[in-house]
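Hey,
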Amino acid sequence: MAGWLASVVGVVIIGVVVELLTHGRRMANFVRSIYGFIVLYVIVSPLPNLLKAEWWQTEVEQMIDVGVVADLQQSSKKFRVQQILQTQGYQHAMITMVDDVVYVNLGEVVDGDRLAELQKVLGEGVVII
């Protein structure tokens, strides 16, 4: 904003100087026309940037957007874990999520080797209970 205002003031000052130098001469009307276009351009030039900016989006809307994205990420993570469990043969496993940790209740007793293999497939951030 300060740069735009400085440009407008600079063009006006240059225009006054040019007007004083061409006062009463035949080219004065031509110079005034060109000067008018330049002033109009300097004044209107920031409009495209203002129209592209998302200045109308409030902080609340931004927080809602962040919340929606976080919910989608959690749902995606839960869905991925559910798909892996189904391919491993655990159709009735219960999946819950607290913060970024997925808790899986297999609903059956599993031996240690198979449990370690399943934990490796599911990766970090998944706790089998």
